């Protein structure tokens, strides 16, 4: 049986890097489209179905942060996004994940690492994982949509989706700060406030769209998913 080809949109204005990515990935496993600016990328993302989007942050006319946000909010597109950038400060990473990125690759990087990360996001997005429940809360790891019973679903992406999945899989138990950080970043060292910032943004998002605070803080211990009926 032939292996399923992965369709990737690469958004990069550096012609040399774009050519290197093309040479490395065009081996029959990938179908590649390229864009050098945000407007072309938005057009391609709105007219094609991609498995993974890889984008630079420093783009002409429109930053990768803005482009990522428009792909999520304007196009309502949940395709996994990898951001490529020379910006390695933690605040830049927080911004990227907040705007909807799923992964963050700091330049310079080995092209094999890019391929590995594309494969990982592709597998996660096509794994057919069963829908998860925490009381009246429903989360679909395949589509990254969360909803309350009888309510309209909210499309998540990036870090909000990752946090939601960890918490709902642990329900009814709580997840410690250390366990959650390990699940999200592995052994990478992150600033202590980073996790709190992500939780705050996710809680605010869920409150606005679902009409309920469904993440409970257990002070000094961690977080747990809390269906409205348990509040």
Strand arrangement, major sheet:
2-1-3-4-5
Strand content: 15-25%
Helix content: 40-55%
Measured distance between first and last alpha carbons = 51 Å
Largest sheet: 5 strands, parallel
User: How many strand units?
Assistant: 12
What is the residue-averaged pLDDT?
A: 87
- DSSP summary: helix tally: 8
Task: Please outline what is shown here.
This protein has 231 residues and is an alpha/beta fold.
Give an overview in words.
With 231 residues, the chain is α/β, with parallel strands linked by helices. It has helices spanning 15-25, 38-47, 64-73, 90-98, 111-125, 158-170, 177-185, 192-210, and strands at 6-11, 30-35, 52-56, 81-85, 103-106, 132-134, 137-140, 145-148, 154-155, 175-176, 215-218, 222-225. The strands form three sheets. Strands 2-1-3-4-5 form a five-stranded parallel sheet, with helices on both faces. It has a four-stranded antiparallel sheet with strand order 6-7-8-9. A three-stranded antiparallel sheet has the order 10-12-11.
List the helices and strands and how they pair.
Elements (H helix, E strand, L loop, with lengths): L5 E6 L3 H11 L4 E6 L2 H10 L4 E5 L7 H10 L7 E5 L4 H9 L4 E4 L4 H15 L6 E3 L2 E4 L4 E4 L5 E2 L2 H13 L4 E2 H9 L6 H19 L4 E4 L3 E4 L6
Parallel strand pairs: 1-2, 1-3, 3-4, 4-5
Antiparallel strand pairs: 6-7, 7-8, 8-9, 10-12, 11-12
Helix pairs in contact: 2-3, 4-8, 6-8
What features would you highlight for this structure?
single chain; 231 residues; alpha/beta; five-stranded parallel beta sheet; four-stranded antiparallel beta sheet; 8 helices; 42% helix; globular
């Amino acid at each position: 049986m032939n292996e399923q080809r992965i369709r990737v949109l690469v958004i990069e204005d550096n012609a040399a890097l774009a050519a290197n990515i093309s040479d490395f990935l065009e081996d029959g496993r990938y179908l590649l489209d390229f864009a050098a600016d945000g407007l072309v990328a938005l057009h391609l993302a709105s007219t094609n179905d991609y498995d993974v989007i890889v984008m630079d942050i420093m783009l002409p006319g429109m930053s990768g942060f803005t482009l990522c946000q428009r792909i999520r909010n304007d196009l309502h597109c949940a395709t996994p996004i990898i951001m490529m950038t020379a910006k390695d400060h933690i605040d830049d990473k927080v911004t990227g994940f907040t705007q909807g990125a799923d992964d963050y690759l700091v330049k310079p990087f080995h092209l094999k690492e890019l391929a590995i990360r594309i494969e990982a996001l592709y597998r996660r997005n096509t794994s057919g994982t069963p829908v998860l429940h925490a009381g009246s809360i429903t989360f679909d790891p395949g589509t990254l949509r969360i909803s309350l019973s009888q309510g309209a679903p909210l499309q998540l992406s990036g870090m909000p989706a990752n946090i939601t999945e960890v918490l709902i899989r642990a329900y009814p138990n709580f997840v410690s700060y250390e366990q959650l950080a390990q699940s999200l970043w592995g052994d990478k060292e992150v600033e202590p406030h980073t996790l709190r910032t992500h939780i705050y943004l996710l809680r605010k998002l869920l409150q606005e769209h679902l009409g309920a605070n469904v993440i409970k803080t257990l002070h000094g211990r961690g977080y747990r998913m809390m269906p409205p009926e348990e509040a």
